[in-house]
Amino acid sequence: MAQISLRIEDEVKKKAEQACADIGMSLSTAINIYLKKLGRERRIPFEVAVDPFYSEENMSRLRQSIAQMEETGGTVHEVVLDD
Question: How far is CA 15 from CA 8, 23, 25, 65, in A?
Fold first, then answer.
């Protein structure tokens, strides 16, 4: 058996361990499942994508909106959506 050593943020590990516990498995088992699937399918078994909020197009639009608001003396307020 091989051993892998890696560094992750404490909070990431804590949340992952809790999720695994809720499912009824250890973090080690979950990582083994991931690695077996990766090796078998030769792909990451879930979508890996950049959050579209941070796209250059969206950031440009946000900068324009902020500039327009500052020019006109507008204000920012939070909108709370009902679930």
Answer: 11, 12, 13, 36
Q: What is the pTM of this model?
A: 0.57
Query: What does the pLDDT look like over 18-55, one tens digit per residue?
Result: 999 999 999 999 999 999 999 999 999 988 777 888 88
User: Measured between alpha carbons, how far is residue 39 from residues 7, 33, 34, 36, 48 in Å?
Assistant: 21, 10, 9, 5, 17
Buried b (16+ CB within 10 A) or exposed e, 57-68: eeeeeeeeeeee
